[in-house]
Amino acid sequence: MISRIDLRGNALPEGGALRDLLPRAEFDVAAALEKVRPICEDVHHRGTAALIEYAERFDGVTLERIRVPAEALAEALETLDPQVKAALEESIRRARTVHRAQRRTEHTTQVVPGGTVTEKWVPVERVGLYAPGGRSVYPSSVVMNVVPAQEAGVESIALASPPQKEFGGLPHPTILAACALLGVDEVYAVGGAQAVAMFAYGTEECAPANMVTGPGNIWVAAAKRYFTGRIGIDTEAGPTEIAVLADETADPAHVAADLISQAEHDPMAAAVLVTDCAALADAVERELEPQVAATKHVEDRIKPALAGRQSAIVLVDGLEQGLKVVDAYGAEHLEIQTADAAAVAGRVRNAGAIFVGPWAPVSLGDYCAGSNHVLPTGGCACHSSGLSVQSFLKGIHIVDYSRDALAEVAHHVVTLAEAEDLPAHGAALKARFGWKVPGQ
């Protein structure tokens, strides 16, 4: 059901050579880019008409308009299962608690008497958020996108989610209910690359956004790449991943359950166990069979995901090798199920989010830990972070110098300008001091 990679007995290679030994899903955004290019440009030129046409072609629905009416949002919330509502409210509460604490504050540094640099943080003016549809419904992604944007102080928030034939061309009602709970009333029944294009260019119904965030399929990722530079993005999200670093203290039933929990997302989802304990590896494999058989989405998602090239049990010589492997892999979600798990977690450099010990499964982070589940995939955790309040803030430096403070450093500025053969830079200071710079 899941393959093995045995790295024991040899020194591990460095950098890219080690990454090449590890399992990873094929996710060719560059190839997809050429297919989404004409869709994006069609939305640019035809606006809402193009979006309605793509809804019929890709989603099998006929729309008269793409914006979800206010009464549909209110009805979705009114008819929401009370238990689901309570769970979403708790998810929102915990996410707000964590994300509110992330908000950066303005800070002024006095460089010299009379010379200060202030860094202030300004929220992005308008964002477009994406909540995927397709195989599953993700109201949790609504929470994870909206809460940090709101806590950052973003004034204009719009959300897009694919139209569903089953629900009369509207996004899934649980998506709509989550929007209503969060006070987001600008919602569009648009999916895929065309949703990113709508936010990037704007249409008759939707004003353009400064930034687009949220997970999606390869077409959404390709559209984000296409518009990078025109709009800000969070990340080009690829197939979801879990890596578990475990030793002999781990419970094989827990490890197997957690691998399956990610495999049920998608046939391209990655489930990786890194361990120095062959007995644990054997026990996890034994646990997979009955647990997979007892769950849902077996043939179309879980079995292909576990059997795919992106999933494996990786055997290593010890914890040090294990840490080296998980850092090279840079998992979206990394569980540490070892002795002294907190200390081991503190040594990890590359992961989207780290889950410490047996009582912090990835599923907790997906919904109710308070952390964000929009995280870097495909090894991007070696250079990128998950979605947070910071994602929606811009840092601006404010430079305030008096005449005396400028005079003190003017000769250095002129010297550096001349060293770079930019004499007009120096002349800008000389003009302020009657063409004779103090100190020269």
Summarize the structure.
The chain is α/β, with parallel strands linked by helices and 440 residues long. It has helices at 15-21, 29-46, 48-59, 70-78, 82-100, 139-152, 173-182, 192-201, 218-227, 252-263, 278-293, 298-307, 319-329, 341-345, 362-367, 403-419, 423-430, and strands at residues 4-6, 107-112, 115-123, 126-130, 156-161, 187-189, 211-213, 232-233, 241-246, 270-275, 312-315, 331-337, 351-356, 393-401.
Key structural traits:
440 residues; alpha/beta; six-stranded parallel β-sheet; 17% strand; globular
Q: What report would you give on this structure?
A:
The structure is a single chain. The protein is an alpha/beta fold and 440 residues long. The protein contains 17 helices and 14 strands. It has helices spanning 15-21, 29-46, 48-59, 70-78, 82-100, 139-152, 173-182, 192-201, 218-227, 252-263, 278-293, 298-307, 319-329, 341-345, 362-367, 403-419, 423-430; strands at residues 4-6, 107-112, 115-123, 126-130, 156-161, 187-189, 211-213, 232-233, 241-246, 270-275, 312-315, 331-337, 351-356, 393-401. A six-stranded parallel sheet has the order 1-11-10-9-12-13, sandwiched between helices. Helix 10 links the parallel strand 9 and strand 10. The longest helix is centred in the N-terminal third of the chain and has 19 residues, at 82-100. It is globular and about 85 Å long.
